[in-house]
Amino acid sequence: METTTRQHWLSLLAHSPASRLAELLQQHLPPAGDISWLRRAQTGLVMLQGRSGGSGSRFNLGEISVTRASCQIAGWLGHGWVRGSDGQHAELIAQADALLQNPQHYPPLQAALLQPLQQELAARREQSARAAAASKVEFFTMVRGE
């Protein structure tokens, strides 16, 4: 598995609503006894860094709360990180990550989980872009007659 592929699905899972993720993932989850929790959901702070001008020197922008969880399913280790304090969301991401790494589970989860979430995320971003474009204000300067 490529690192970029895993990064993509972890990002997609983190940007999806927890309720929708639970709905799509529920039928693919093993029984609770088959999930070994290495770290149940824990909330903490992470320092965000910025760069001057986007590429200059780094500076501390501020702190953000994040929640993380880790589990093991059938020998596959899954990790979940989410912005905020939603422990259930982080645990769902960890479970999905462990299942997606298993070659037997990846194809059905690709079709039943990742593709619908990707389409919904694209639709939300499109709607947000349209809303921003609708409120765009263009300024211009009129030259006084000379």
How would you characterize this protein structure?
By secondary structure, this protein is α+β, with helices and mostly antiparallel strands. The protein has 4 helices and 3 strands. The chain has a 3-stranded antiparallel beta sheet. A hairpin with a 6-residue loop joins strand 1 and strand 2 (58-73). Helix 1 (3-14) packs antiparallel against helix 3 and helix 2 packs antiparallel against helix 4. GO terms for molecular function: lyase activity. This is Phosphonate C-P lyase system protein PhnG. InterPro entries: Phosphonate_metab_PhnG. It comes from Aquitalea palustris.
Based on CA atoms alone, the radius of gyration comes out at: 20 Å
Helix tally?
4
Q: Which stretches are low in confidence, meaning pLDDT under 50 for 5 or more residues running?
A: none
For the biggest β-sheet, the strand order reads 1-2-3
Domain module tally? 1
Q: Tell me which oligomeric state these chains represent.
A: single chain
DSSP helix fraction: 40-55%
Classification by helices and strands: alpha+beta
Tell me the distance between the termini: 68 Å
Q: Kindly state the number of beta strands.
A: 3
Biggest pleated sheet: 3 strands, antiparallel
GO molecular function, one term: lyase activity
GO biological process, one term: organic phosphonate transport
Keywords: Lyase
Pfam families: PhnG
